[in-house]
Specification:
The complex is a heterodimer. Chain A is built from no helices and twelve strands. Chain A is an all-beta fold. In chain B, a hairpin with a 6-residue loop joins strand 4 and strand 5. Classes of the chains: A mainly beta, B mainly beta. At the A-B interface, strand 5, strand 6, strand 10 and strand 11 of A face strand 4, strand 5, strand 9 and strand 10 of B.
Chain lengths: ~120, ~110
């Protein structure tokens, strides 16, 4: 069965610290997609990144970077030099090719960045 | 370009009532999905519609139904509301390819008293 685990419920850091959000997934499908979404207090889920199961290249976008490791079924997200505006709930999600586009979300990690 | 829009923003109902939530997808997107997010949890998949047909359904009771219109907008209906239906209801749109990224609207906050 498919499952996404975000073991960190809450993380608090001070501005300019680096922070890594962990995501571990379970799937039996060989073709799948992994996502990260950000949910600020306003409630809207903001898309950050999508990765398919055949592309293990790490990705960097500004202060954001993602580390995808199939060997450990992990898709971790690092924010470098965190800022107060990064404060939000971050969700990791999985969709399996066989199951269509239904997203399976983790429970989320609440990140608080203080100045 | 406008993103996904949802209406209403907030809604208060009492147990046993019926509710209709509305969603307009991003222009050019033909697939709409609905998710329920209870406080403190991740969103849970309810339905996906493409070209007015249901393409997927999550583990929700028959009190939940949806439909998609020719202009690709969608409605989510919930009958016989229960206290446990109180949640943020999120709509997402995507291109019709099954692997496409879903883009979410701001949600409708439903409170059942």
């Amino acid at each position: 069965a498919q499952k996404v685990t975000q073991a960190q419920t809450e993380i608090s850091v001070v501005e300019k610290e680096d922070v890594t959000l962990d995501c571990v997934y379970e799937t039996r499908d060989t073709t799948y997609y992994l996502f990260w979404y950000k949910q600020p207090p306003s409630g809207e889920l903001v898309f950050l990144i999508r990765r398919n199961s055949f592309d293990e290249q790490n990705e960097i976008s500004g202060r954001y970077s993602w580390n995808f490791q199939k060997s450990t079924s992990s898709f971790n997200f690092t924010i470098t030099a965190s800022q107060v505006v990064d404060s939000a709930v971050y969700f990791c999600a999985l969709s399996e090719y066989q199951a269509g586009t239904a997203l399976i979300f983790g429970k989320g990690t609440t990140l608080s960045v203080s100045s | 370009d406008a993103g996904v829009t949802q209406s209403p923003t907030h809604l208060i109902k009492t147990r046993g009532q019926h509710v209709t939530l509305r969603c307009s997808p991003i222009s050019g997107h033909k697939s709409v999905s609905w998710y329920q997010q209870v406080l403190g949890q991740g969103p849970q998949f309810i339905f996906q519609y493409y070209e007015k047909e249901e393409r997927g359904r999550g583990n929700f009771p028959d009190r939940f139904s949806a439909r998609q219109f020719p202009n690709y907008s969608s409605e989510l209906n919930v009958n016989a509301l229960l206290l446990g239906d109180s949640a943020l209801y999120l709509c997402a749109s995507s291109l019709p390819i099954s692997t496409d990224t879903q883009y979410f609207g701001p949600g409708t906050r439903l409170t059942v008293l």
